[in-house]
Structures are given as structure tokens and as C-alpha cells.
Design a protein that fits this description.
61 residues, mainly alpha
């Protein structure tokens, strides 16, 4: 995820510095956003599965 965030930051900086066109920026950014969404989904699935595998704590009265 960190490398993806770095890629996005570099795209933003390139557009601000005018070393990249807005069109190129938008093309790359949309791909990076899709990658980000996939990673978020995978992380959510991982945590959901992990929580299912842990035994639930029971309370004693």
C-alpha cells in the first residue's frame, strides 16, 4: 500500500510541476485508485476472516 500511495503522490507532484499533462495524470490516477480499492477490499476480507478464526471470549456472570 505504501508504494501505491507513493505512486499517487508522485503523479500529483508531476502534474503540479507541469511535467505531466492532466490527461496523463487522470489516466494513471484512475488505475492507481482501482489498485487502492482492490487492496482495501483484500484487507477488509483478511480482517473479517481473521476475526472469524479467533475464538470468541465468553463472559461469566
Amino acid at each position: 500500500m505504501e508504494s501505491l500511495l507513493l505512486d499517487i503522490a508522485q503523479l500529483i507532484e508531476a502534474e503540479k510541476a507541469k511535467t505531466s499533462t492532466v490527461s496523463t495524470f487522470l489516466q494513471f490516477l484512475s488505475g492507481k485508485e482501482r489498485e487502492w480499492d482492490v487492496l482495501k477490499l483484500e484487507r477488509a476480507r483478511f480482517y473479517k476472516e481473521r476475526s472469524r478464526q479467533r475464538p470468541r471470549a465468553t463472559r461469566s456472570a
